[in-house]
Amino acid sequence: MNTNLFIMCIEDESEVLEAILRDLEMFEDYFRIEAAQSVDEAKEVLKVLINDGLKPALFICDHKMPGTTGVDYLVELSREEATSKAARMLLTGQAGQQDTIKAVNQAGLHYYLPKPWKPAELQRIVTELLTDFVSKNEDNLMAYMAVLDAEKLSEAMRNRNTYTDM
Q1: For the chain, which terminal residue's Cβ has fewer other Cβ atoms within 10 angstroms, N or C?
Q2: Closest CA to 134 of 126, 124, 144, 125
């Protein structure tokens, strides 16, 4: 792995967290994958990663957890300079309509995926979210061609060249 980008997964149920991590294994060579079982733990891990110079690319968060809810944490992340550009995904079976609306309107939620999910669906969505993030925030898009949407990354590179050639 030669990247400064990471994916943070926040889920309080250990067997569900293990399933998420297993489904994200295909991204491990390109993104550091971190896990936390509470918002408090996620905040501590996040502080260390950012202090080490790493940048968040994606947060995948459950909603119903002890202490702070996933939606409230995503809202908080959307307002912090160090985390505001990262994609935010709610992966839950527990968020009601009001919580979902809050996540969309206040946290700039990029995707809502209900539990249970299919591994291929999660991988497709994560690929899409990471492709969008990388194409907007990274210089070397070639480094991600093998794992993300190569067609979209190629288009982003062509668009960049178009603008720089003018």
Answers
A1: C
A2: 144
Considering the four listed CATH numbers 3.20.20.70, 3.30.70.20, 3.40.50.2300, 1.20.120.1200, the one that applies to the domain covering 5-164 is 3.40.50.2300
Q: How far apart are CA 49 and CA 53, in angstroms?
A: 7
Q: Quick one: tokens of 107?
A: 């946290």
Cα–Cα distances in angstroms (integers) from residue 78 to residues 97, 117, 131, 155, in the given order:
20, 25, 19, 27
- The closest alpha carbon to 71, from 97, 53, 51, belongs to 97
Q: Where are the domains of the chain?
A: 5-164
State pLDDT tens for residues 43-96. 999 999 999 999 999 999 998 888 888 888 998 999 999 999 999 998 877 656
